[in-house]
């Protein structure tokens, strides 16, 4: 089983916290990407034929800006099956029932909406161009367009965010037809406009004890409306695609800046549409970085990533080095991990302090 990822870098406006490779949605860029994706597919095809495709994911950027015809052309080349999960990311401002119906009709069966908040004040802090009202409308438009697998993203730890504001967002969730939710705390990543202002903004984010309360209240609310936490930041019907990342399923990434993990190696494409296109025009794969972690660093990293899943990891056949086993025992003594025969999983405390667990293991 494999997964495929397509990076569509167009956005109407760059958000101040975004560290992805994103460019303005200029129509003249569309043919460059379309031709690049076609050529990259042809070059990668020998690796893909005869493989079963578990999931396809169009991310970005805002992939719905590329257009149903362009996304449809990509899908037409792929021998997916009726059980393949096919996701597209969208933003509320352009997610109308009419547009989403077109995506549904070309085979997309899962929608991931960048809602971020259902409180207009938080959306203004994030300088998003949609309102909370538009976000709710977009979710219902997705349902009306025939999507029954709808995921939304929410963000917390925002400058000026209060517990009351967060509860205002959480209290609206039970009335929405969503099957999945991804929860992120705001981070200040280099090369973003928020990063440049971080000294001021960090004074306005909730302090650590409030941040923990925001997280805990979200977990309680989501579990109470049937969206079970199955991974540190994911709730509801498990995403086939993301579960592949956490369990080490091979995946190939297409498009500028796309990452891949294949036969123990990880590599990424150039983060520039023009260079991406140029390399493909000369029949070269647009890969600019590649690495293969040696044993035991590869095992340690995979263990840390897979522990994000609530079900934990059965390490029976893993050949863990003795020092990693000692680390696991010590994390267990500190109440961060639990062990059930050979299956390790995060405790409730470990779910709150996952970063510590990951750092210790890696
Ligand atoms: S809409 Fe999403 S991908 Fe586009 S700039 Fe904002 S955060 Fe980044």
Quaternary status of these chains? Answer: single chain
Task: Write the CATH fold name of the largest domain.
Answer: TIM Barrel
Task: Report the strand count.
Answer: 17
State the low-pLDDT regions, or none. none
Q: What's the main sheet like? A: 9 strands, mixed
pLDDT averaged over residues: 96
Strand order of the largest sheet: 9-10-8-7-6-5-4-1-11
Instruction: Enumerate the distinct ligands.
Output: iron/sulfur cluster
| Whole-number total of structural domains | 2
Alpha-beta classification: alpha/beta
User: Could you state the CATH homologous superfamily of the largest domain?
Assistant: Aldolase class I
- SS element count, helices: 15
Task: Give the strand content.
Answer: 15-25%
Corresponding CATH architecture of the largest domain: Alpha-Beta Barrel
Distance between the termini: 27 Å
* Backbone CA Rg: 21 Å
What is the topology?
Blueprint: E1 2-8, E2 10-11, E3 23-24, H1 29-48, E4 53-60, H2 68-76, E5 85-90, H3 97-105, E6 110-116, H4 120-125, H5 132-144, E7 150-156, H6 163-170, E8 180-185, H7 193-196, H8 198-202, H9 208-224, E9 229-231, E10 234-236, H10 240-247, E11 251-254, E12 259-262, E13 265-269, H11 273-281, E14 287-291, H12 297-306, E15 313-314, H13 322-333, E16 337-340, E17 343-346, H14 348-352, H15 354-361
Parallel strand pairs: 1-4, 1-11, 2-3, 4-5, 5-6, 6-7, 7-8
Antiparallel strand pairs: 8-10, 9-10, 12-13, 13-14, 15-17, 16-17
Bound molecules: iron/sulfur cluster.
């Amino acid at each position: 089983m494999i997964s495929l990822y397509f990076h569509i870098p167009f956005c109407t406006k760059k958000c101040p916290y975004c560290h992805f490779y994103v460019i303005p949605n200029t129509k003249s860029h569309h043919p460059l990407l379309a031709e690049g994706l076609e050529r990259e597919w042809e070059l990668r095809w020998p690796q893909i034929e005869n493989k079963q495709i578990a999931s396809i994911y169009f991310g970005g950027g805002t992939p719905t800006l590329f257009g149903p015809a362009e996304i449809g052309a990509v899908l037409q080349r792929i021998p997916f099956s009726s059980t393949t999960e096919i996701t597209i990311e969208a933003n509320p401002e352009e997610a109308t029932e009419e547009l989403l119906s077109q995506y549904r009709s070309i085979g997309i069966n899962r929608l991931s909406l960048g809602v971020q908040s259902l409180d207009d004040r938080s959306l203004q802090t994030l300088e998003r161009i949609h309102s909370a009202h538009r976000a709710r409308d977009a979710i219902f438009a997705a349902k009306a367009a025939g999507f029954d697998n709808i995921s939304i993203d929410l963000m917390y730890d925002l400058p000026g965010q209060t517990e009351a504001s967060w509860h205002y967002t959480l209290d609206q969730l039970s009335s929405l037809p969503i099957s999945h939710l991804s929860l992120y705390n705001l981070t200040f990543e280099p090369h973003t406009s928020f990063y440049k202002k971080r000294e001021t903004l960090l004074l306005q984010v909730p302090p650590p004890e409030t941040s923990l309360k925001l997280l805990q209240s979200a977990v309680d609310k989501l579990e109470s409306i049937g969206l079970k936490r199955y991974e540190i930041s994911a709730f509801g019907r498990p995403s086939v695609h993301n579960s592949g990342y956490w369990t080490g399923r091979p995946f190939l990434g297409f498009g500028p800046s796309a990452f891949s993990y294949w036969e123990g190696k990880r590599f990424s494409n150039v983060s520039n549409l023009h260079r991406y296109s140029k390399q493909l025009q000369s029949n070269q794969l647009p890969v600019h970085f590649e690495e293969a972690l040696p044993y035991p660093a590869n095992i340690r990293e995979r263990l840390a990533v897979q522990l994000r899943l609530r079900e934990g990891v059965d390490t029976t056949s893993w050949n863990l080095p003795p020092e990693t086993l000692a680390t696991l025992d010590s994390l267990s003594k500190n109440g961060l991990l639990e062990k059930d025969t050979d299956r390790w999983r995060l405790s409730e405390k470990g779910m709150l302090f996952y970063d510590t667990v990951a750092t210790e293991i890696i």
